[in-house]
Amino acid sequence: MDTQERADFINPEEIEALLKDHQAPAPARVRELLAKARELQGLSMDEVACLSFVENPELLAEIFSTAKRIKEEIYGSRLVLFAPLYISNRCSNDCTYCAFRSTNTDLKRRTLSQEEIAEETRILIRQGHKRVLVVAGEALPPQGFQYILDSIATIYATRVAPGEIRRVNVNLAPQPTDRLRQLKEAGIGTYQLFQETYHRPTYAEVHLKGRKRDYDWRATVFDRAMEAGIDDVGIGVLFGLYEWRFEIMAMMQHIRHLEKKFGVGPHTISFPRMEPAVGSEIAARPPHPVSDADFLKMIAIMRLAVPYTGMIMSTRESEGVRRATFEVGVSQISAGSRTDPGGYKDGEGDPNGSQFQLGDHRTVDEVVGDVIKLGFLPSFCTACYRTGRTGQDFMDLAKPGEIKYHCQPNALSTFQEYLTDYAGPVTKSAGEKLISIELEHMDEQQTACALPMLNKVRRGERDVFV
Ligand code: SAM
Ligand code: SF4
Predict the structure, then answer these.
(1) Which value, to the nearest 10 degrees, does the dihedral of the CA atoms of residues 363, 311, 54, 245 take?
(2) How distant is the alpha carbon of residue 253 from its chain centre?
């Protein structure tokens, strides 16, 4: 059994003091920080505080353009796609913002069988997906934790020629180290978990029952994950519960703690904003709503602060907001999502079984088509984790900008797979044009790698990566 540690790395006094000291920053100071961020060195806590108070439209535009530039420098034009796969909405906790809370008697409860999970997986494969995020409430069926392990195995074992899911990430309640080790052995990519709020009093107010009431057990899970050998972890906050400036500063403390202790920070940061949910009053009226303008600002600031970290945007947000976030640093997006177990098979998504209301209802093909139009390159790549480029190895590669010699060719080959096997005619023709344009913009080294890979895919080979 793990000894319970206290998450002392979250220091609210330090956050409050920094936020107090850095209000109304001078334009010269802001520009100095932007120049520093352009060097891809990241930002310190006081610098994040300072930028969070920028309101001047001209300076804001400079923050946005710097974030875009940094994202392009490290990740190129790629946007990686994934889909969530909800396997169970049974939950023993009572989080006031979530439709799965145990006290919500209006919710239709469902835990998918392995055959149902295979069916959902087949649908996602037929849509062209290669990565899924397994999501569940915190109440295990009689098989216990083995259910989760079996579900991961089922997803990996399901195949619909010529495709399969190649990376399974998870968003699951905090686990002790031995179970995290089992998740690692089951082949998960990222272990993702959101702290919801780093503000202890708010945390206590919104988590009424169950194991989730324990702030420290949750906040220390990435320490256990890293000890269990999972070096890709994904952090996040449910925005709307507490003041967003406090939350991004606390995320910075969490990131710096992991970097200091394990030599590597989180692989991804997610930015879920609270959406209406059946059986939740607070979800309809978040106590600290984040405006679209602040939402974009915080995403851009985090891109400057932790330039090498993947940033995820889900379908909680509308098409318009999602598009705007692509311009300020987001590098991974979900598409065609359902948040009710069995929702892909059932079609529309059942509001009485779903976790929250979605903002983007488009199909994968529509999202891919839109991403192309916006000038981004949709990627279904899963190579990094399968070649062992995770944790510190990933960061070492990412830091000198080398990722573009792996990720860009891999993005093109997996995008070509998508176009050949799954795209509608309009997306296919736009996508083929995009591939030609991307090839023209590549340097010799990239082309020498990418072209033979593309040709292999065009000749019928699949899962071609470097
Ligand atoms: N049950 C586990 C947990 O709570 O950590 C894992 C899965 S939970 C279904 C996934 C995430 O959904 C939560 O961490 C929370 O941030 C988010 N969520 C819950 N209610 C939401 C809402 N009303 N709007 C947007 N996101 C919500
Ligand atoms: Fe359960 Fe997670 Fe929803 Fe809380 S957020 S009620 S733990 S599913």
Answers:
(1) 100
(2) 19
Hey, what are 212's tokens? 């989730």
For residue 100, which ligand has an atom nearest its CA?
2
- How high is the pLDDT of residue 386? 81
Q: Alpha-carbon distance 142 to 131, whole Å? A: 27
Sequence-distant (6+) residues with CB within 8 A of 389 are: 383, 397, 406
Which ligand 1 atom sits nearest the alpha carbon of residue 277?
23
The pLDDT value recorded for residue 153 is 98
Q: Which residues of 296-331 are buried (b: 16+ CB within 10 A; e: fewer)?
A: bbbbbbbbbbbbbbbbbbbbbbeeebbbbbbbbbbb
- Whether the predicted model's global pTM rises above the 0.90 cut: yes
d(C-alpha 244, C-alpha 272), whole Å: 12
143, 246, 140: which is closest to 199 by C-alpha?
246
Question: Whose CA is closest to atom 5 on ligand 2?
Answer: 98
> What pLDDT does residue 466 have?
87
| Ligand lying closest to the C-alpha of residue 280 | 1
Q: Are residues 102 and 92 in contact, defined by beta-carbon separation less than 8 angstroms?
A: yes
d(CA 96, CA 282): 7
Q: What is the pLDDT of residues 218-271, one digit of tens each?
A: 999 999 999 999 999 999 999 999 999 999 999 999 999 999 999 999 999 999
pLDDT for the residue numbered 446: 86
Amino acid identity at 385: Y
Residues with CB under 6 A from ligand 1: 97-98, 100, 135, 137-138, 171-173, 193-194, 196, 238, 272, 274-275, 277, 283, 316, 355-356
Dist. CA 98 → ligand 1 center (Å): 6
Q: Which residues of the chain have pLDDT under 70?
A: 1-4, 348-349, 391, 393-404
- Mutation choice for ligand 2 from 212, 214, 282, 355, CB with most ligand atoms inside 8 A: 212
In degrees and rounded to multiples of 5, residue 234 shows phi and psi of -125, 125
At residue 398, the pLDDT reads 65
**In the prediction, which pLDDT does 125 show?**
98
30-67 confidence digits (pLDDT tens): 999 999 999 999 999 999 999 999 999 999 999 999 99
What DSSP line would sit under 348-394, residue for residue?
S--TTT-SS--S----HHHHHHHHHHTT-EEE---HHHHTT--HHHH
Nearest C-alpha neighbor of 174 from the set 131, 130, 113, 215: 215
**Interval between CA 173 and ligand 1 midpoint (Å):** 10
Name 316's Cβ contacts closer than 8 Å, sequence gap at least 6: 272, 273, 275, 356, 358, 359
**Minimum CA distance residue for ligand 1 atom 14:** 194
Rounded distance from Cα 311 to ligand 1 centre (Å): 17
Q: Report how far ligand 1's centroid is from the alpha carbon of 272 (Å).
A: 8
